[in-house]
Design brief:
The complex is a heterotrimer of chains A (311), B (247) and C (288).
Chain A: H1 3-13, H2 16-19, H3 22-47, H4 56-71, H5 77-99, H6 104-124, H7 126-129, H8 151-174, H9 176-186, H10 188-193, H11 198-224, H12 234-247, H13 254-272, H14 276-290, H15 295-309
Helix pairs in contact in A: 3-8, 3-11, 3-12, 3-13, 4-5, 4-11, 5-11, 8-9, 9-11, 12-13, 12-14
Chain B: E1 6-15, E2 18-28, E3 33-37, H1 44-52, E4 59-64, E5 67-68, H2 74-79, E6 82-84, H3 97-106, H4 123-135, H5 151-164, E7 169-173, H6 181-192, E8 199-203, H7 207-210, E9 216-221, E10 224-230, H8 231-236, H9 238-246
Parallel strand pairs in B: 3-8, 3-9, 6-7, 7-8
Antiparallel strand pairs in B: 1-2, 1-4, 4-5, 9-10
Chain C: H1 2-32, H2 39-56, H3 62-83, H4 92-114, E1 131-133, E2 136-138, H5 140-162, H6 164-174, H7 176-181, H8 186-212, H9 218-233, H10 238-258, H11 263-277
Antiparallel strand pairs in C: 1-2
Classes of the chains: A mainly alpha (311), B alpha/beta (247), C mainly alpha (288).
């Protein structure tokens, strides 16, 4: 990894609360949340070779469980978080068993179908989820008594969680298990012949990705203090996938960069355009046709070339 | 351990209407060197794929060291000591030779489930991998990516990966295919030097190349066993000549 | 009793529509190994075209629109296939992503052009009167729809099993490399099949208009149903699409009627069973 770039990025992440106004700090928080979501998806897509179009399921379900448990049943945030993540992980375990019966495009279709079913449920079960109105009036937690209601303290909270997520995922993919995961991604038959259990390896990764997807969902609902079925939509999954691919699937930091770009684009585009979805679609086409490997690999190839050229 | 290493009993496999394996039975004893020959399309690789678990037979039985493995998935067969090489090289092109062999070693170790420490945390794996590469004469290229080395060298890496696991039975799928004469004799020497603790079953479609490595020979044609027995007996059998000259 | 009959007929007509939608999807997946996520949008485009045209020109009839919209959507599909999909032959994931992108573009374009309100598609005049049979009253249009779906199924069957084009398609589905090797123009075949699939979807959209109306989100409602049908029935199998469509038609219709809140879960269950016990689908020959 390029240490200079890492130091620069790390340093710049510490700056927003000191330099920027509330609007930008909030934007930065949203970027961190999107980054965690994209990093969790990258476990599946980039390192596991399993392209999922239903990852929003984990964000949405975690968010909804937390919202319901705190607002309907009056649980505290700590308990709610535990219930929410446990529920999300259980769902990931279950979905994983179903979806991993297939690979490649079949897997993609099944994850899409499962997530669409959840989305439909969120709309229809309105006595539970409040349907199209969403669940409003939610609160943010106050870890160790520190309120997260102002943008700066929420930003630090999000930054800490994002850093933990990044480190945890990096350790995971660099470990011996991570090596076996990448091996299964590239040559599943050979790995099986060597003694690795491809299905179990994929399933474990799937569940871990669901875990971090759920964590991003908690941050999401804390930030917005509101949850709506659109968070479970295919657009939500597609934005994350675009972030992963645009940033560079299978790189450690690429998806975070990609997610940041998608979010910034969405923010600025919606100021000028009504039609974010159409722009998203066009960006998809552009990225896939022009830069299929993503920005980060392209950039590192560029810097390598520059370094190679200097005497 | 006295029984046969491998028993195939009445194996049948058909793809749609095409019968690729028809009632194939064979027995390979411990430490034996078996050569399976037959013209292209005889069903040799399909047979191997059923033994390694990549394909499910329609009917019949496969026993490894006396235990029925017919329904076992490939990774469980590997854990019982089965190792194989492939006709098409399936190494990880972007990784080093050492990494490729290390990954092979990791497959049978509990540390493969380890989600904290990287492979480099286990220096014994790297040492073992280098030893295996040395045994095939490629230690000097250990840190090169696979994409850098020649085809003949890749075949030797395949062999190193399979042998590093110290398998009890080794399936070699056309190990000499596509090699120059020099490379061929290098690989043959390597195969000949495999210790007798490992039973070896080889496929070659060219009868002459690997004959001197074999104790026993099985001749397949159109998915059936035509002749089966000691090498010299099979070579002398007129059915063998028929199969090869008749095509 | 009338309730059950009506729901039964609704199930059949939904099944018929789903067959028209998913047969194209299944063919495209079977031949091109492409999960065409634009398929729902192609359907919706057909519905919107019909809705606008019929609203603007009183004299036009629905059947003309079926052909016209079918061709229009087929043409759009063909352009997309030639300009975008062919560039991504070595990138199957990329192909899926661009079909997703295209579906977003089409659905937003529809929103832009036709606004957020739902636009009804009038039922053809001569089919508006209900039919009386066996002492029950049936909405005539739905009966006709079921009939049309069966006719389309037979036509597609003949196309695939009895024509040279069909033989080439089946060869391509079974073994693409081999088909190319024997001289079958596989890339032209891809374009033809993609156009065919898109066109049928567009035509189905028109036919579904009187029942569903054109509304934003129609694509998002139809696509998962098509996916579930194909997962259930098996990829590349026309029979699977046929059976699967009617099974899902029944489950969805009765589910919505009897347990509206749980309709999606009820859809979900047969899909889980099939994937758990028969991942290639009920009739699938091609592995997913």
């Amino acid at each position: 990894m390029n240490w200079i770039a890492a130091a620069l990025i790390g340093g710049s992440l510490l700056l927003p609360p000191f330099l920027a106004g509330d609007f930008y700090i909030n934007l930065a928080s949203q970027i961190l949340i999107a980054a965690i979501f994209a990093l969790s998806l990258n476990l599946l897509v980039g390192f596991g070779g399993m392209t999922s179009l239903g990852h929003a399921s984990y964000l949405g379900v975690a968010a909804y469980i937390s919202a319901l448990v705190t607002s309907r049943y009056g649980f505290g945030h700590g308990t709610a978080a535990i219930i929410s993540i446990s529920g999300t992980v259980a769902m990931a375990a279950f979905f994983g068993v179903i979806a991993l019966r297939a690979t490649g495009l079949g897997f993609l279709m099944i994850t899409l179908a499962l997530s669409q079913v959840l989305w439909g449920l969120a709309y229809r079960m309105s006595n539970v989820t409040n349907g199209d109105n969403g669940i409003t009036g939610l609160t943010r937690p106050a870890p160790f008594g520190i309120s997260l209601d102002n943008p700066v303290s929420f930003y630090w909270f999000a930054l800490i969680v994002a850093t933990i997520a990044f480190l945890a995922i990096t350790v995971f993919v660099s470990s011996a298990f991570g090596s076996s995961l990448k091996g299964v991604r590239d040559q599943p038959r050979r790995m099986a012949a060597l003694g690795f259990n491809p299905r179990l390896i994929r399933w474990i990764t799937f569940v871990y990705a669901g875990f971090w997807g759920g964590v991003s969902g908690l941050l999401y609902v804390y930030y917005h203090k509101y949850i709506h079925p659109t968070s479970l939509s295919i657009t939500s999954s597609a934005e994350a996938l675009l972030g992963v691919i645009a940033g560079g699937a299978g790189t450690l930091g690429g998806p975070a960069v990609g997610a940041a770009l998608v979010l910034l684009l969405k923010n600025y585009a919606s100021a000028y355009l009504e039609r974010w979805n159409m722009l998203l679609g066009l960006v998809f086409l552009f990225i896939v046709l022009v830069m299929p490997a993503g920005i980060v690999p392209g950039f590192s190839r560029l810097t390598a070339a520059l370094r190679g050229k200097s005497p | 351990m006295t029984g046969p290493a491998l028993e195939v009993i009445g194996l049948r496999k058909a793809f749609g209407g095409l019968a690729v394996t028809q009632d194939v039975s064979l027995v390979v004893q411990l430490g034996e060197r078996r050569l399976i020959i037959g013209p292209n399309g005889a069903g040799k690789t399909t047979l191997f794929n059923q033994i390694s678990g990549d394909l499910r037979p329609n009917s019949g039985q496969i026993k490894l060291f006396g235990a029925d493995i017919t329904r076992l998935p490939p990774y469980k067969r590997a854990q019982r000591g089965l190792s194989r090489t492939y006709q098409i090289i399936t190494l990880f092109a972007g990784d080093t030779l050492e990494h490729n062999v290390s990954l092979g070693l990791l497959g049978l170790r509990p540390s493969r489930w380890q989600t904290c420490w990287p492979m480099s945390h286990y220096p014994d794996i790297a040492a073992e991998a280098r030893r295996a590469l040395d045994a095939v004469g490629l230690l000097q290229l250990a840190d090169h990516p696979i994409s850098d080395i020649a085809y003949g060298e890749r075949r030797r890496v395949e062999l190193a990966v399979a042998l590093a696991q110290r398998p009890r039975i080794l399936l070699l799928d056309e190990p000499l295919a596509g090699l120059s004469n020099v490379e061929r004799s290098t690989v043959k020497t390597l195969i000949a030097s495999i210790p007798r603790e490992t039973t070896v079953v080889m496929i070659e479609h060219d009868m002459d190349t690997a004959l001197d490595l074999a104790d026993t020979v099985t001749l397949l044609n159109y998915g059936r066993v035509i002749v089966d027995g000691a090498r010299d007996v099979v070579v002398a059998d007129e059915r063998t000549r028929e199969v090869y000259l008749g095509t | 009793m009338q309730f059950w009959i009506i729901q039964g007929l609704n199930s059949l007509s939904l099944g018929g529509l789903l067959f028209l939608l998913s047969s194209g999807f299944s063919l495209i997946f079977g031949l091109m190994r492409l999960a065409n996520l634009t398929h729902g949008a192609f359907f919706m485009l057909g519905t919107y075209i019909a809705a606008t045209a019929l609203r603007a020109h009183d004299g036009l009839n629905l059947w003309v629109m079926v052909i016209a919209a079918g061709f229009a959507v087929a043409a759009l599909g063909g352009l997309f296939e030639r300009l975008v999909l062919t560039r991504l032959k070595t990138n199957p994931l990329g192909q899926v992503l661009v079909t997703l992108g295209m579906s977003f573009i089409i659905s937003d374009a529809c929103l832009m052009l036709w606004g957020g309100d739902s636009i009804p598609v009038p039922t053809p005049q001569n089919l508006q009167a209900p039919t009386r049979m066996f002492g029950f009253v049936f909405p005539t249009y739905r009966l006709v729809l079921v009939g049309l779906a069966i006719v389309a199924a037979i036509a597609l069957y003949f196309l695939l099993e009895r024509t040279r084009l069909g033989a080439m398609i089946r060869a391509g589905v079974d073994d693409r490399q081999m088909a190319r090797a024997v001289g079958i123009p596989v890339s032209n075949l891809f374009t033809i099949v993609f156009c065919l699939g898109a066109g049928i979807a567009g035509a189905a959209g028109v036919l579904g208009g009187p029942i569903l109306s054109a509304y934003p989100g129609l694509d998002a409602d139809m696509l998962p149903l098509a996916l579930i049908v194909v997962i259930l029935g098996g990829i590349g199998s026309l029979l699977g699409a046929f059976v699967g469509s009617f099974v899902i038609g029944f489950i969805y219709t009765f589910g919505i009627a009897l347990f509206p809140e749980l309709a999606y879960i009820i859809l979900f269950l047969p899909m889980i069973f099939v994937i758990a016990f028969r991942p290639q689908g009920l009739f699938g020959r091609v592995g997913a």
